[in-house]
Specification:
By secondary structure, the chain is an alpha+beta fold. About 40% of the residues lie in helices and about 25% in strands. The protein has two domains: about 1-65, P-loop containing nucleotide triphosphate hydrolases (Rossmann fold), CATH 3.40.50; about 85-160, Alpha-Beta Plaits, CATH 3.30.70. The longest helix is centred in the N-terminal third of the chain and has 18 residues, at about 30-45.
């Protein structure tokens, strides 16, 4: 209800530009869908320009015709969602494997990026379905495979990195207050 009220208050004066900060934060899926439909309607019928800040990449992909990815206060990427995803250089292959052999994979000219996490190897591959068999033969024992087109989450991680950051400016208000009390 509070989110709906905030949105209604912002629209009282028929603005040409509306700034929304995390408009669906904490909402259930039905209410989130309703808010998204309402925002899309405002853009189409009322010709309102809406600037949204969000951490929900699905929300940005659906609602925005231009996206700026900001890292450490700098815009590191700015384009349409489809262009940002196409700049990833191919499809994403996620492999569950215990001890991957990555040296041979990194040498393949159609592999544009290789990221290893604790649980998986994530590759960006041009024409993934064409090259999947060769990748599987070189990487070692594979438990599962997922192939998909890049998402804005992939784009965000590509431009900002995958590490968790513990900077003073990150987190909610309570985390910052606790951080200040500890004298950090």
């Amino acid at each position: 209800m509070r989110r709906r009220l905030e949105l209604a208050r912002g629209l009282l004066h028929n603005p040409r530009i509306l700034f929304l900060d995390e408009p669906t934060l904490g909402l259930d899926p039905q209410t989130r869908e309703h808010i998204w439909e309402y925002i899309e309607g405002l853009v189409k019928t009322e010709k309102v320009t809406i600037i949204i800040t969000t951490h929900y990449m699905e929300e940005a992909d659906r609602l925005c015709n231009r996206i700026a990815i900001i890292d450490h206060g700098r815009v590191v990427a700015l384009d349409s969602p489809s262009n940002l995803k196409s700049k990833m250089g191919g499809e994403v292959i996620r492999l569950q494997t215990r001890s991957p052999t990555l040296d041979q994979i990194k040498e393949l000219d159609y592999v544009t990026s290789v990221n290893k996490t604790d649980k998986a190897v994530v590759l960006t591959v041009k024409n993934a379905s064409t090259h999947l068999q060769e990748i599987l033969s070189k990487i070692g024992q594979v438990e599962s495979v997922e192939i998909r087109t890049p998402t804005l989450n992939d784009v965000f991680l590509h431009y900002t990195g995958r590490e968790i950051r513990e900077e003073a400016g990150e987190g909610g208000v309570m985390e910052r207050i606790a951080h200040m009390r500890r004298g950090n």
